[in-house]
Specification:
By secondary structure, the protein is an alpha/beta fold. Helix content is about 25%, strand content about 30%. NADPH dihydro-nicotinamide-adenine-dinucleotide phosphate binds next to α5. The site of NADPH dihydro-nicotinamide-adenine-dinucleotide phosphate has 18 residues, from α5.
Length: about 300
């Protein structure tokens, strides 16, 4: 067992920025990295919209830089997955396998996970024509033909956004009725560059990561069971995100979609001393730079809370 002033659970831009700020405040934070150290950015390729990297940077490399910067000031990153937390008394207790970390203040930055379909090709071609984020990767599909999978608000938003770059966007939805709000659906329907394929699912993806990535989508019509192969340059999955909050179920307040609720303009949760930042509490923006900003807020909130306590 080890005792700490600040323990941070999650190591994406939010967690590592919180670590940087907490370390510079001399709080010697421990970061429990989770099963995907660096978070969602480690499954993207070029990041061109993070201010300060004028030439762009590869996602995994950017997270290495974040980590090195936090470690430079004394943050310690621990490889492992928090599998149980106890928040019902001070200090808070975080279990990582057989190790136990006690924390006076806890920062939750466990992020969100884009839902995937579960296809082997989808994982193999992620970052090579398959993406779960149009704002991150849309730019690479200038004048190309892409498909968006899903029928919710995210799918409509991504399809509309993609028309800024792509020549044509095909939305593939498993039913013949959209889940999206009327206004978003209408906007997508009115867009000349967007077309819809109904009652269909993506069954497989053709392409080789080493040789230009995605080349075709294999679709199946659920009503006729007919299969078709559509030549395509990119595939955007927009079937929802899942905030990673299982660890805190029952302890931290969440909204109707499962995101942790933070008190207005702060990172404070319903438990004093527990702070949340990044995508686990944000379904609106979901950008690396907004996650990093909220990580900074969480470290400052934690520092002030600890100081007030002493
Ligand atoms: P949703 O859960 O609303 O929609 C997911 C979509 O993906 C549904 O159409 C669903 O189909 C489809 N889907 C799910 N799983 C599969 C699968 N395995 N195979 C094929 N299709 C699948 O998620 P969103 O991310 O779109 O939205 C999340 C929340 O955020 C919502 O409350 C939304 O309103 C909100 N939001 C609001 C925005 C705005 O107002 N600007 C922008 C983005 C999100 P089916 O319909 O058949 O279930």
């Amino acid at each position: 067992m080890s005792k700490h002033k600040v323990v941070i659970v999650g190591s994406g831009p939010a967690g590592l920025t919180a670590a940087l700020y907490a370390a510079r405040a001399n709080l010697q934070p421990i970061v429990i990295e989770g099963d995907q150290p660096g978070g969602q950015l480690t499954i993207t390729t070029d990041v061109e919209n993070y201010p300060g990297f004028a030439e762009g940077v590869m996602g995994p490399e950017m997270m290495e830089i974040f980590r090195a910067q936090a470690e430079r000031f004394g943050a310690e990153c621990v490889f492992g997955q928090a599998d149980k937390v106890e928040l019902d008394g001070s200090p808070f207790r975080v279990h990582v396998g057989k190790d136990l970390y006690e924390a006076e203040a806890l920062i939750v930055s466990t992020g969100a996970t884009a839902k995937l379909l579960g296809l082997e090709a989808e994982t193999r071609l992620m970052g090579y024509g398959v993406s779960a984020c149009a704002t991150c990767d849309g730019f690479f599909f200038k004048d190309k033909h892409v498909i968006v999978i899903g029928g919710g608000d995210t799918a409509m938003e991504e399809a509309i956004f993609l028309t800024n770059h792509a020549a044509k966007v095909t939305v593939v939805h498993r039913r013949d009725e959209l889940r999206a709000s009327k206004i978003m659906a209408e906007r997508a329907r009115k867009n000349d560059k967007i077309e819809f394929i109904w009652d269909s699912v993506l069954e497989d993806i053709a392409g080789d990561a080493e040789q230009g990535g995605v080349t075709a989508a294999i679709l199946r019509n659920l009503k006729t069971d007919e299969k078709s192969e559509m030549p395509i340059d990119g595939i955007f999955l927009a079937i929802g995100h899942r905030p990673n909050t299982e660890l805190f179920a029952g302890a931290l307040d969440v909204d109707e979609s499962g995101y942790i609720v933070t008190k207005s303009k702060s990172s404070r949760t319903n438990i004093p001393g527990v702070f949340a930042c990044g995508d686990v509490q944000d379904k609106e923006y979901r950008q690396a730079v907004t996650a990093a900003g909220s990580g900074c807020m969480a470290a400052i909130d934690a520092e002030r809370w600890l100081a007030a306590r002493e």
